[in-house]
């Protein structure tokens, strides 16, 4: 039997504002990047200049055959100083939504994707008890933008975000298997902020949830309890917090082995991506199954992809990921759609070197160059490219 997906299946690609827009000068990450003591490889700078070139990016997505675009609204642009909101920036994101709809592309909107306003971070960030109401105030301000989105994501990868707070100067990879345990106070506030945001977004009648990043922990014999204890604060508690949402979103790229002594890095003899993660396409299907088992909700793949300079290998990885997802659907998993990470090569939280994009761009001219993988995935979405091959 050939591999086919339902007509209602969502096919698209994802980005995040700070990683592609450029010059997000009021964010906490910008402050970290330009700090003379920064240990990051390079700053984001102009990034892909998508703040000005989003229409080109949306057009390329639409022409490929993909029909959905997940992007984030940048809180630091909307509220650059506490209580000071920018009408011009709200209009900017309204124009992005307009552009999507003009190209027949469904917008999916993320309200917070790792970055916060500098004033918020300097005043305690997610460890401050005022963070919940501060986030809710921002969400209330952007509610008029959301009624034309098909789905809204509140806070991207809250489990990774909570671990970033305890990470040393941002030098650790954004992977739960290699990071410190989440800050427990931030975890509490992130969950409370999510629930408050869900209440608000539901007032405009749009399905809402949040994207969690399971790391596909797997245990050595005898290490099952170690796995449960290790995974609970790093992902399980955030998936449990999704119960009662309209859907659960998952994002996965690799897996992490757990021994009786804890997690291990990727095996030396395994194929690794540009981020140093083990090449493991089945991760996303396993994450989708886990998300559904814990929440009972339909699942939306909000990110999945590979950091590689070999675009043929990107196609291989994505093909096998989609095959694994289809097998889970055949086994009864309610899967809503698949959003590839990322539409563009982007700033991967310290460096432009890990290339995840379906589209490359010139750092001098910003000229876009679609990779073969963009046309391939668009063909899968259109049904003109078979996953059986």
What key phrases describe this protein's structure?
389 residues; alpha/beta; 9-stranded parallel sheet; 3-stranded mixed sheet; 40% helix
Summarize the structure.
The protein is an alpha/beta fold and 389 residues long. Helix content is 40%, strand content 15%.
Structure report:
- The protein is α/β, with parallel strands linked by helices and 389 residues long.
- Helix content is 40%, strand content 15%.
- β13 and β14 form a beta hairpin.
- The longest helix has 20 residues.
- Rough shape? globular
Gyration radius from CA atoms, angstroms: 19 Å
Helix content: 25-40%
How widely separated are the two ends? 12 Å
Structural topology:
Layout lengths: L9 E5 L2 H4 L7 H7 L15 H15 L3 E5 L2 H4 L8 H16 L3 E7 L5 H5 L8 H16 L4 E5 L2 H9 L17 H18 L6 E2 L1 E2 L4 E3 L4 H17 L7 E4 L4 E4 L2 E3 L18 H13 L3 E5 L7 H20 L4 E7 L17 E3 L6 E3 L1 H11 L7
Parallel strand pairs: 1-2, 1-12, 2-3, 3-4, 4-5, 6-8, 7-9, 8-11, 11-12
Antiparallel strand pairs: 9-10, 13-14
